[in-house]
Amino acid sequence: MNDRLAPSPRILSPLILSSRTLSLRILSFRMIATASAKWCVRTTAIVTLVGCVMSVGNAFAEETPGESSWQSVPKYEGDHLFTLKILPLLKEKCQGCHGADEEFLDGELNVLSLESLLRGGESEEPAIVPGEPDKGMLIPSISWEYNEMPPKENDRLTEEQVQYFRDWIAQGAPWPSEAVQTEIREEAIKQKVTDEGMIVETSGGTSAEWTTRRYKPEDLWAFLPVEPTEETLPENTAPHEAIDFFINEQLEQADVTAASAASPEELIRRASYDLTGLPPTPEEIEAFVEASGKDADAAWAALIDRLLDSPRYGEHWARHWLDITRYADTGGMSNDYERSNMWRYRDYVVRSFNADKPYNEFVVEQLAGDELADESYQQRTGATAKEVHQ
User: Fold this and answer.
1) pTM value?
2) Rounded CA separation 213/390 (Å)
3) 60 or 313: whose pLDDT is higher?
4) What secondary structure does DSSP assign to 243-307, as a single string?
5) What is the helix, strand, coil percentage profile of the chain, to 5?
6) Do 268 and 288 contact (CB within 8 A), yes or no?
């Protein structure tokens, strides 16, 4: 870190970075996808994601679902349906406008109790009629047949979620006591892996529902143990051919023919733009074409190493991290004041890329940069702890 300015601990994003080896294989297949190739160059540098609240290592190792480990989930009914499906949806989708502040209820509708749903809102019609899901204002609203509730497209309930409400109303709209709800949740948590997903041990969420939420395994692939190559690759397929195998497999399934091999001129342009954001010079193109004619693999490896070692590499790829952290030299909006020292953070990110800093160290610095600032200053200046604050 430069001077004594450390990165803000607020700056964090679980950015998945590819390895240098992966970049070489993908680039050699003419698919430019080398996002931050210099980080995670070793297989042991699989993303540590210090900022992610999941403490998943041991949990996944012990609970990785196999074909026989999944437990089927029966159709939710009665109190279980309300506790495990309806109430979480009411809290997530509805209570913000219809219960969080009882003095300001949109449409005068409160969803915090069964009585308020039976009473309804300003339309003077009940939101639900127990036993009759086709009556009341709730179902037409959440189905977007009458009102559009929730009003935002990305908050809209799925057909399955709407059906939960229909089933709940059809069963008489049971609303169990807090004690019964707690008992049902505790029993459900004991089933770590079900058809609906897996519960992952974390450091805790903002609510009990969030802490014990279920995740689909396909959404957690980055944290699951890596499958042995003999289980994922055909016999006689070398590990270094894995990426080509999987890409070709997808191309075949999509009935798409792979493009022909790129020429040396095309390869150096693609690699140069991808890793540095700049075109190759005529002299660089000529040298690469000549080297490729003698030994294509060696020329390609030398090209990638040269581009990764270029200062332009860090300048180009640091932009992606800076975009995620919403970096800006000024405050923006109407008070567009200058942030006179922000360039220090920008340069620090660029240096991190160019120095091939291990990703886990980089993330720790994003989270605890303020705590590490004094230590960094002492290392760079030789100052004692007492001298740091003089």
Assistant:
1) 0.53
2) 49
3) 313
4) HHHHHHHHHHHTT-PPPPPPPHHHHHHHHHHHHHSSPPPHHHHHHHHHHHHH-HHHHHHHHHHHH
5) 50, 5, 45
6) yes
Candidate from 41-45, 79-83, 317-321, 368-372 with smallest mean pLDDT: 41-45
Answer whether 264's CB lies under 8 Å from 288's CB: yes
The 10s digit of each residue's pLDDT in 325-371 is 999 999 887 788 888 899 999 999 999 999 999 999 999 998 888 88
Q: How many CA atoms lie within 13 A of 296 on its CB side?
A: 7
Strand runs (DSSP E) across the chain, as ranges? 193-194, 197-199, 214-215
What residues contact 212, with CB distance under 8 A and at least 6 apart?
A: 185, 188, 189, 199
Q: CA 124 to CA 36: how far, in whole Å?
A: 58
Q: Cis (ω within 30 of 0) for the bond into 9?
A: no
Contacts of 90 (CB under 8 A, 6+ apart): 111
User: What is the predicted pLDDT for the residue at 146?
Assistant: 82
- Residue 191: half-sphere exposure toward Cβ, Cα within 13 Å: 15
Helix (H, G, I), strand (E, B) or coil at 197: strand
Instruction: Give the other-Cβ count within 10 Å of 59's Cβ.
Output: 17
| Phi and psi torsions of 268, nearest 5° | -70, -35
Q: Is the pLDDT of residue 48 over 50?
A: no
| Identity at 37, one-letter amino acid code | A
Instruction: Indicate whether 165 pLDDT > 90.
Output: yes
Name, in order, each residue with C-beta under 8 angstroms of 363's C-beta and a sequence gap of 6 or more. 12, 48, 49, 50, 51
Yes or no: say if 27 and 19 are a contact pair by the CB < 8 Å rule: no
CA distances to 17, 49, 54 from 14, rounded to whole Å, are 9, 6, 12
Task: Write the CB contacts of 25 (distance below 8 Å, at least 6 apart in sequence).
Answer: 240, 243, 244
Strands 193-194 and 197-199: antiparallel
Beta carbons of 32 and 271 less than 8 angstroms apart = yes
Q: How far apart are CA 210 and CA 203, in angstroms?
A: 11
Angle at 51 between CA 47 and CA 53, to 5 degrees: 100
- Lookup: tokens for 174: 């049971």
